[in-house]
Amino acid sequence: MTNLPLLPLRDIVVFPDMIVPLFVGREKSVKAIEEVMKHDTNEKQVLLVTQKDAITDNPKENDLYKIGILGNILQMLKLPDGTVKVLVEGKERVKISKFIDLEHYIKASYTKFPDKIKKNDECKALTRAISEQFEGYIKVNKKISKDVLTSVIQSDDPSKVSNTVAAHLNIKISDKQMLLETDTIDNRLEKILELLESELDVLKVEKKIRSRVKRQMEKTQREYYLNEQLKAIQKELGDSDDGTDDNEDYLKKINSLKLTEEAKKKAESELKKLKSMSPMSAESTVVRNYLDWLLGIPWKEPSKIKYDLNDAIMSLDKDHFGLEKVKERIIEYLAIQKRVKKIQGSILCLVGPPGVGKTSLGKSIAKATGRDFVRMSLGGVRDEAEIKGHRRTYIGSMPGKIVQGMKKAGTSNPLFLLDEIDKLGADWRGDPSSALLEALDPEQNNAFSDHYLRG
């Protein structure tokens, strides 16, 4: 059992037959190197053991793995900042028997940990398979020198092949340490082949992703270049259409309209997004359509309601003959509305066969009260989105019939006539009659929300 200075390694596992440069900066590690270089022998031997956690600055026995490498220092160079650069060669596996934590550096006693080699057909087959896969790995991973591949292909020694391939695999430190600790060569070759195939699959996917991203970037850059050329040509022709005028118009509308706080924030957010987009992009068209709808709705622009009951009676009598009970109910509703002023919008249900005057009664009520009239035909409507609007994520999405009706009327308090409400349908897309509940309930219809406008 021999004692030698020990050099703790961070984020690297050294394998036999591997020559690697190491930068040593910790005081104890520098002292360990200096202790090795004192001896006037041909081989400057040092124990190379990997830390379990690279963050640990002053590792103790429990912070280091038990299996390491007996290394030979080939070169040493002291750098101006006090650190040391050494070139070490891994010689053979060793097992640490005892750690001796001296004042200036760590020393350890060790025993040799040789490979258990079984030269059989399985071992040859695994070695050949690893060589073939490693060739494909190097083609994808350009960082590895082709000289490494040559040494692997030309070698018949399974131990040397396993050490070389394991050292150059881009895998976790814990996996590399696991390979170092596997003394049976057959088991080690199997594990290396498994890790190599897994890493090769990952690299192929990464390459595919990089190619796709590169193509997309080239396409985006080409579009940007062409758009800039188009702008320059339009500027020369005096036909600038870069969307600046539209943006200014949108800003004026946002500031002039009586939008709610939530609607104003949403409009400003969408306008900010629009300014950063290319006017030729498909997404900018979607945002412009949304702003056109949002700013085209009559926010807080009600029509002046008339409360003249005599005028209402004359209007109903002029347009309809008979229907005394219906007229009486309408006048009763208008009288209560005149008296209370802030009465919640009532729902009048007009029932009767086709042609008796239900639609024309709605027009007469709108005329008598000074409201704009909006007729919504619900016959055959099966999709809930027809009432509450489509989500903006859908192609060709637009608000529901209620918001469309308000925009068409141009006022925020039109009179809606929901025609043929008994002919509503329902299917897998939803039940429109359920969506109407929110719109018809006086307690909650003031907070009615359209899916499209909510964004």
Helix/strand layout:
Elements: E1 2-9, E2 19-24, H1 27-38, E3 45-50, E4 67-78, E5 84-101, E6 106-112, H2 121-140, H3 146-154, H4 158-168, H5 173-181, H6 185-237, H7 244-256, H8 261-275, H9 282-296, H10 309-319, H11 324-340, H12 358-369, E7 373-377, H13 385-388, H14 401-409, E8 415-419, H15 432-440, H16 451-454
Parallel strand pairs: 1-3, 7-8
Antiparallel strand pairs: 1-6, 2-5, 3-4, 4-5, 5-6
Helix pairs in contact: 2-3, 2-4, 2-6, 3-4, 4-6, 7-8, 8-9, 10-11, 10-12
Structure in words:
- This protein is α+β, with helices and mostly antiparallel strands.
- It has four domains: 2-112, Archaeosine Trna-guanine Transglycosylase, Chain: A, domain 4 (Roll), CATH 2.30.130.40; 115-239, Methane Monooxygenase Hydroxylase, Chain G, domain 1, CATH 1.20.58.1480; 244-296, no CATH class; 309-454, P-loop containing nucleotide triphosphate hydrolases (Rossmann fold), CATH 3.40.50.300.
- It has helices at residues 27-38, 121-140, 146-154, 158-168, 173-181, 185-237, 244-256, 261-275, 282-296, 309-319, 324-340, 358-369, 385-388, 401-409, 432-440, 451-454; strands at residues 2-9, 19-24, 45-50, 67-78, 84-101, 106-112, 373-377, 415-419.
- The strands form two sheets. A five-stranded mixed β-barrel has the order 1-3-4-5-6. A two-stranded parallel ribbon has the order 7-8.
- The protein is elongated.
